[in-house]
Structures are given as C-alpha cells and as structure tokens.
Amino acid sequence: MRKLLGLIRMACDKYHMIEEGDRIAVGVSGGKDSLALLAGMKELQRFYPKRFELFAVMADPCFGKQPTDTSALEAMCKEWGVPLTVKRTELYEIIFEIRKETNPCSMCAKMRRGILHDTAKELGCNKVALGHTVDDAVETFYMNLFSCGKIGCFQPVTYLSRKDITMIRPMLYAEEKDSIRVCDKLNLPIIESKCPANEQTNREDMKQLVAELNRTYPRLINKTIGAMERREIDGWKE
C-alpha cells in the first residue's frame, strides 16, 4: 500500500489534483484499479495537507438485466466511512440488445461517465477521480496512434465546462500490478465483470500487444510516458 500511496500522492501533487475543500467522487466499477484507487484516496485523506471529502459512485450496467451484487462493496464503504451511491442502469439492455453495438466498450464508457458525472453533481462533488493507470495511458496512446493516426492520450486533469466538474486520474503513475498487490493485501471485494464483451475488445488486444512490445523493448511503457511528458502531450508534463 505504501508504494501505491506514494504514486498517488506524486500524481496529485504534480498536477494539483486536490485543493482545499474538494468533494471528490471516486468512480468505482468493482474492478481492481477502482478499488485500489478508493483505498489509496481514503488513506491519503488521513494526512494530505489539503482537506477533502470522499464519495464512492458506481454505475451498475446490470449485465443480464440483473443488478450486480454490491453487498460486499457496501459493507467495505460503510466500514471506511465513505458514502456509496449505486446507480442501477439499463446500459446492458441499451448497448447489447437494443443498439447491438459493434464497439460496445466505447459507448458503454461514454454513457457510464455521463451517469458518474451527473451523480457526482447530485452529491455536490466538484471532482471525479478515475482509476486509470500508466498501463491504460500507454494503451490509449497506441490505440490512438494505430487506429486513428493521431498522437494523444487522456489528460491527467480534465475540466468539463458543460458539467462544471473536473476529472482527475490519481493512479496515472501506478501500474496494474500495484492495484493487484493492494487488492490482494487488503482483501478488497473485487466484483468480477459479467460483460459479454469481456476480453474480446480492441482494448484487450492492445493490452496484449503492449505487453509483448514491452518484453521485446524493455521499459517501453516508461519510455512512452517519458516522451508524452517531454512533449507535453494532452497536459502531461515533466
């Protein structure tokens, strides 16, 4: 936990992600990265020089038209003193049965973010924290390059003027293995995804490709992030 906490603080300090009095909604999917983020932010809250409030928000896609069992997550948040809001949605039905999306991940992510932002505003939050890791950043960079022919990535900090809310990514220097380690050590209640498209997406293909390239070209992930920072791509900086 100490390593992850240090990486979260480094990102928060470098990109000024947290200001005094912030009300931060942590987007929780039930996966390892979002749970590790919630655990890290809760720990950071104990000693960070700028005081902030934490909330957990989950947009449940209701795969198979069934609500996800969130009882273990609810118990954990109650124990930690973090208010949890679970929004039951019709995302599964809309995306897979009505629209029959050929690229369901993109539409699902967009709609879930919209629900997350709206719920955060309802809770009086001014910021939303997402659990994107350095692995996600590098995969996004190469997906943009290979699929769209453009150089770009998500931003560490993004202000959404239409919603008047700021998205922050405190895990952007952490690796997926850091999330796994924290979840195992703290025995966090991971919710296994029941998405029909799980592990059959362009994102998963890119994850495998980046992993293979990283073995062939050591430290490719670090070098990619370094290049993004040196060129200050999409708000990344040294």
Question: Any key phrases for this structure?
Answer:
about 240 residues; about 15% strand; six-stranded mixed β-sheet; 6 strands; Rossmann fold; alpha/beta
Helix vs. strand class: alpha/beta
Lateral strand order in the biggest sheet: 3-2-1-4-6-5
The CATH class turns out to be Alpha Beta
**Helix/strand order, N-terminal first:** HEHEHEHHEHEEHHH
Ends apart, CA distance between termini: 25 Å
| Strand content range | 5-15%
Instruction: Give the C-alpha Rg.
Output: 17 Å
Question: How many strand elements?
Answer: 6
Helix content: 40-55%
CATH architecture: 3-Layer(aba) Sandwich
Uncertain parts: none
Sketch the major β-sheet: 6 strands, mixed
Mean pLDDT: 94
Fill in the CATH topology: Rossmann fold
The domain count comes to 1
Instruction: Quickly count the helices.
Output: 9
CATH superfamily: HUPs
Overall, the morphology is globular
Molecular structure report:
The chain has a single domain (2-235), classed as Rossmann fold. It has nine helices and six strands. Helix 3 (71-80) links the parallel strand 2 (52-60) and strand 3. It is α/β, with parallel strands linked by helices and 238 residues long. It has helices at 2-14, 32-47, 71-80, 91-98, 104-122, 134-148, 176-186, 202-216, 220-230; strands at 22-27, 52-60, 84-88, 127-129, 157-160, 165-168. Strands 3-2-1-4-6-5 form a six-stranded mixed beta sheet, with helices on both faces. The chain is globular, with a radius of gyration of 17 Å.
